[in-house]
Amino acid sequence: MVKNKISKIFHKKGISQPETTSKSSAKKIQSKRSKLPSTKKFVAGILEGNITFLSRAITLIESTNLKHQEKANTILEQCLPYANNSVRIGITGVPGVGKSTFIEAFGKQLTGEGKKVAVLAIDPTSSVHKGSILGDKTRMEGLVSDKNAFIRPSPSGTSLGGVAQKTRESIILCEAAGFDTIIIETVGVGQSETMVHSMVDFFLLLKIAGAGDELQGIKRGIIEMADAIVINKSDGDNIKNTKIAKVEFNRALHLYPIKNSGWQPKVVTASALENTGIKAVYDMIEEYILLVKKNKFFTHNRNNQNTYWLTSTIQQHLYDSFFKNKNMSTILQKEIKFLKKGQTTPFTSAKKLLKSYNDKT
Ligand code: GDP
What we know:
Structural class: alpha/beta
Bound molecules: guanosine-5'-diphosphate
Shape: globular
CATH class of the largest domain: Alpha Beta
CATH superfamily of the largest domain: P-loop containing nucleotide triphosphate hydrolases
Number of strands: 7
Number of helices: 16
CATH architecture of the largest domain: 3-Layer(aba) Sandwich
Oligomer: single chain
Mean pLDDT: 86
């Protein structure tokens, strides 16, 4: 019986849906979509704070298509005079420390104070896993729906150097679009912290309290870079541990000489989940910015960062142009053979290779 009923249902012919869009209008819509707006429209849209234009321009920056890159460069050049007017904050910490939860709470604090906040991510693992730390935007649900916030995941499948350059360019566009606070999130593994540190005004390290061995396994360099250490998850039974950790980190920070910025790095406890300590972090960053603007470190640091990015871009370009050159690769392999046989020295070979490279370029 039942079987029959089911088969009847299956045999009933459905009524075909009426066409809502004719083929010709569908084509029109498609061609409109694929056609890029003019550079002028892009720039005007970004300067008006239009998120759609901003997102599409960042997509152009991330594109490997040469035409897109050219367009992105022109947009960037035209946006540059309107950029720079922001506070750039780097946030790092190991997976699970609570970065997303913290950025969500902190971002809401910022927008609550009338700020416009853009969150960009640098994900050192994205080239390996083709994933992204901000790929899952539901991790920042509240901020995603906030009209004064803009969240952009890290582009996947690109080298860390590539992601860094694209992030710096995205910062410029976000600033031109009126975002006055830019948060750069990165996972605290590998080289990415150093990269983020070289593009922000304030560098914040998120930690959680351990079992009294806070400083074990933590890289010296990262403590030196930090302007603040926020010990997250200071709630429930964990409050006592975070207080102990605070004392330890404070002691560690005092071992370092005072920073060029004149700022003594601070340790703060917070609970991103319960929204405690977040305002204290906001106030601390305000205090820092006031100090470094007064003593001119703010501009000095940004100038240094720009110089660093200029020289490192040239370095990268020269490196690629040398090592990706087929001719050079052939000569290099030959020289390596001579080297193994003891027929040349690394320096003689290097000189020879560079001369050959310079003659050809
Ligand atoms: P991320 O990997 O660093 O981005 O960390 P998430 O923000 O995804 O958080 C990892 C886990 O820690 C999640 O289950 C969060 O709910 C939890 N978490 C984050 N912040 C806090 C906090 O302040 N207190 C407590 N108890 N849990 C938190």
